[in-house]
C-alpha cells in the first residue's frame, strides 16, 4: 500500500461522515469523497501532501457535493439553500472532520429498517472505506451480493428519510450491538487482513481502537462497550510484534513480550474491570486476550482458564468457529491428541464450509504432535482453501509446511 493509499484509508470515514452530515445524502457524500481522492492523486504528487490531508479532502469533497446538489434540478431549492447555508455557516472549524460524525454514521447504518447484513456492509464501506471486494471477502459473500446490499441500504435511508444522527438516548441501546459489531469488524480486518500484501493494516487497527474508545465515552455505563474496548486494546498491544521487519508473520509463541505495549495492556485491563458482568460475547474474548497479554511467557499461559472462557463462548454462540479455536486451546491444556479429537467433533459442521478455519488449526495440532506427514497434507489444504488470507499469512503457512518436510538421509531438511 502506498503512502497516499494509507492517507485515503485513514481519512475516508471521517470525510464521508462529515459530508454526509452536511448534505444529508450518503451517495452524494461517498461519490464526493471519491472525487476528492482522485483529485488528490493528480495534485499531491506535484504540489506535496498538505499538512492536514483530512481537511483538504473534506473541503474538496464538500465543494463537489455542493456542485452535485446544485445540478440536481429535482432537489427543492429551499433544501439546497439550507444545505449551502449550513456549510457556509460552519466556518473553518468544520474543515477538520469531527470524529464523532463516524459514530453518528454508524448509528444511522444501524437503523432497524435495514437488515443486519446490509447494516454491516454499509458501515464497513462508509466508515472504514473497505472496498466491495474486501467486504465480500470478510463476510464470505460474493462481490455482487455485497454491492447490491450497499446500494439497497443507501436507497432505503434516502427514501425513508432516515436521519443521519445519533439516535436519542432511549434508542441507543437497541442499535449498540450493531455498532459494536462493526467496530470489531473494522479492527479485525486491520489486525488480521483477509487479503492483500500486508498482514496488518495499521489505519484500520487505529480506527477500531479509537471508535471503541469514542463509544465508551458516549455510553460510559455500557459494559459491552467496555468489553469491546478491552478486547481491541489487549490485542492491539501486540501489534508491532506480530510481523518482522520484512512483514512476515510472527506467531504468538515466538513474539518478544518485552516489546508489547504495556500502556495499552493497562488500559485494556481497566476497561475489562468496567466490563464485569457484560452480557455479550466480547467479555469472554477479552478475558482470553487478557490471559495472553498478562502471561509472563508462552509456557506459563493459563490454558485452563482460557478453555473455560471458550466454554462460555460456545454456550453463548454455538459458533463452530469458536469451537474450532477452542480445540486448539484444549490441545495446549490436555495434549494435542485431545485437541484433535475436539476438532473432529466440529470439523464437519456445514457452517464452516466457506471458511478456512479448520485446516490450519488441524495442521498446527498435527505439527506440534509430531505427525508431520499428516500436517503437510493439511497445510496444503489450508493454502488451497478459500480465504487463506493475506500474502504474509500464506507465506507463514508455507513456512510451516517447509518445517514439516521429511529429513534427507544426511539429516538435512
UniProtKB/TrEMBL annotation:
Native source species: Mycolicibacterium porcinum
Domain DUF6596: residue ranges: 175-275
MF terms in GO: DNA-binding transcription factor activity
UniProt name for this protein: Sigma-70 family RNA polymerase sigma factor
Pfam families in alphabetical order: DUF6596, Sigma70_r2
Domain RNA polymerase sigma-70 region: 13-73
PANTHER family referenced in this protein's UniProt entry, alphabetically: BLL6612 PROTEIN, BLL6612 PROTEIN-RELATED
NCBIfam families associated with the record: sigma70-ECF (TIGR02937)
GO biological process entries: DNA-templated transcription initiation
